[in-house]
Design a protein that fits this description.
The complex is a heterodimer of chains A (113) and B (114).
Chain A (H helix, E strand, L loop, with lengths): L4 E3 L2 E4 L5 E6 L6 E7 L6 E7 L2 E4 L8 E4 L6 E5 L8 E8 L7 E2 L3 E5 L1
Parallel strand pairs in A: 2-11
Antiparallel strand pairs in A: 1-3, 3-8, 4-5, 4-9, 5-6, 7-8, 9-10, 9-11
Chain B lengths: L2 E4 L4 E4 L4 E3 L1 E4 L5 E7 L5 E7 L5 E4 L2 E4 L9 E3 L8 E8 L1 H4 L3 E3 L3 E6 L1
Parallel strand pairs in B: 2-12
Antiparallel strand pairs in B: 1-4, 3-9, 5-6, 5-10, 7-8, 8-9, 10-11, 10-12
């Protein structure tokens, strides 16, 4: 079946612009995670949803970062007033239940100029 | 808090050589341990996992044993192939204290030469 998909795959933004990154999880997966991967580093947790409820947003680096999953399926990560330090690959993962294996999407590479 | 430390790369090997990537962790609860692999141009894929002490995870010729006494989860493969060239990430999740979010190490790049 289809895996986790993310769009766009690449995004270039000028400093100060707002961006929206989309994640389509595997159908039926309850849990959805966002991670940020800086160049040459391991992914770092941003936020987590169970269905439409955002249960943990402790990893969001600032109030410029906002995530939503209004119908418990597709999720959007929004970054307002982008800064150069926001340049990274943003990964989305989903799992059937909270304790199950997480399956990752291909990521969105964001470059802020 | 939870953390994962893995050996820095790059690790360069010849085909059929033995591969070891060291991974140690710090966790306050009872973590599950994972190795993920990222092949060039592809997304993260689960390679293997172990959910309790002394469990051995294995897949595609790779193995790792959950050692609670040494807080380690070293990855090994007896005979690597060129196709094993990738970045390998050790990770943990601790459902008892931190939900199921994954904490990753920094990654180890492995290059296998023919």
């Amino acid at each position: 079946g289809a895996g986790v998909s993310q769009s766009p795959r690449y995004k270039v933004a000028k400093r100060g612009q707002d961006v929206a990154l989309r994640c389509d999880p595997i159908s039926g997966h309850v849990s959805l995670f966002w991670y940020q991967q800086a160049l040459g580093q391991g992914p770092e947790f941003l936020t987590y949803f169970q269905n439409e409820a955002q249960l943990d947003k402790s990893g969001l680096p600032s109030d410029r970062f906002f995530a939503e999953r209004p119908e418990g399926s597709v999720s959007t990560l929004k970054i307002q007033r982008t800064q150069q330090e926001d340049s990274a690959v943003y990964l989305c993962a989903s799992s059937l239940e909270i304790s199950d294996t997480q399956y990752f999407g291909p990521g969105t590479r964001l470059t802020v100029l | 808090g939870n953390s994962v430390t893995q050996m820095e790369g790059p690790v360069t090997l010849s085909e059929e050589a033995f591969l070891t990537i060291n991974c140690t962790y710090t966790a306050t609860g009872y973590p599950s341990l994972f190795w993920y692999v990222q092949y060039p141009g592809e997304g993260l894929q689960l390679l293997l996992k172990a959910t309790k002490a002394d469990d051995k995870g294995s897949n595609k010729g790779f193995e790792a044993t959950y050692r609670k006494e040494t807080t380690s989860f070293h990855l090994e493969k007896g005979s690597v192939q060129v196709s094993d060239s990738a970045v390998y990430f050790c990770a943990l999740s601790d459902l008892s204290t931190a939900g199921n979010k994954l904490t990753f190490g920094g990654g180890t790049r492995v290059l296998v030469k023919p």
